[in-house]
Amino acid sequence: MFSKHTTLVIATAIICMAMATANVSHGEMLEGITAPSADITLSFVMPGRVSKVHVGVGATVKKDQPLIQLFDETERIQCQQLKMLSEDYTKIHAAQAELAQKRVDLKKVQKALTKGAASEWEVEHLNLNVRIGELALKSALLEQKQYRQRYAHAKSQLVRMRLVAPVAGLVEEVNVEVGESIGTLGPVVRIVQNDPLWIDVPAPVHQAMDFVIGQAVWVTFPETPVADASPNGRIIYKSAVADAASETLQIRIEVPNPLKRPAGERVDIAFSKEEKTDVKAQLDVN
Prior knowledge:
Helix content: 40-55%
Strand content: 25-35%
CATH superfamily of the largest domain: Efflux pump adaptor protein, beta barrel domain
Structural class: alpha+beta
Shape: elongated
Distance between the termini: 42 Å
Order of helices and strands: HEEEEHHHEEEEHEEEEH
Number of domains: 3
Mean pLDDT: 88
CATH topology of the largest domain: Elongation Factor Tu (Ef-tu), domain 3
Number of strands: 12
Low-confidence stretches: 8-26
Largest sheet: 6 strands, antiparallel, barrel
């Protein structure tokens, strides 16, 4: 027969074991704050005057959509001229033809020399002409190459005179107006991408150790019913270094945002279906 004291000790141990098992299997429901998956402020790398503002605050933009344009008429004219010169092979063809003729003349004089009909001086003179022709062709080829390089540089300058959307998203800020002169590296346009959203959460190390990249999670937004639905997010990043002070590991979660919810909301994250079910049961009881 067990004493009352022994029975109490055994019961307490069983309860503690059950609680520990529950903690291991379910883990902890975490809270996080949603953030844009991209938040980019664009600037010009060269000064200029604003020619066109294609978008306004709140506009939805696609990747590579034009945003802001500087005045570039002079640069476009110069670029067109360099394009024509880079595609002009007239000097090269003329140098090739002239060199071919000089080589023919040299062969004729060399043949005449064997018959005593030409002098060594004439052969040497035509040899020099051929050498000059080779240098002229080399110069024409080099000049044409330089035009191609200058044309490529001019095109890159034109690219620097316009801003395009690096990602699809929403225009959060526009800090310039048409006709305004601007300098370099000042904030011009801010683009945010809210679909998908990212959530960075510090998870307890003992819980995060079992997390893997790509693992499905359940994200519950404010005023959204907790349901036994399929997971709507996934882990895309797990820090390799824990924070010793808080004993946590940084985890990043990605969740689609088809309803276009704003970033900055507090959300609950469950890493197992049991956690999700537990939360739903608690809410139903309340």
